[in-house]
Design brief:
alpha+beta; 105 residues; Alpha-Beta Plaits; four-stranded antiparallel β-sheet
């Protein structure tokens, strides 16, 4: 699902990944983190695509909201598992969105 109609400015957390060979439990953990993220203060939406590389973009009201999500106990536990087990490589980027537009037919 594409997230639209967010009020400018807001923040985007772009999480790009390359999975390791061992993905046992990964999908369940990713789904659990999405459910948990949606419950966090300041959460605005999420978009995700997983193929050759995985890309998940979550949207937030403030940098403080992003920091609170990063420090969530369950999220911290799953990040640790990701580094130890699921990811060959990942990159995280935090961006301030000052302009956005789209199209839908």
């Amino acid at each position: 699902m594409i997230v639209a109609n967010l009020h400018i400015p807001y923040y985007a957390v772009i999480f790009s990944t390359v999975l390791s060979e061992n993905t046992d439990g990964y999908i369940a953990a990713a789904k659990r983190m999405e459910v948990l993220a949606k419950q966090q203060k300041g959460f605005l939406g999420i978009e995700s695509a997983r193929a050759e590389i995985g890309i998940t973009i979550s949207y937030w009201k403030t940098l403080a909201d992003i920091s609170a999500w990063k420090n969530n106990v369950d999220h911290t536990e799953v990040r640790k598992l990701g580094r130890e087990k699921w990811y060959k490589k990942y990159q995280l980027r935090i961006c301030k969105v000052e302009r956005a537009y789209g199209f839908e037919s």
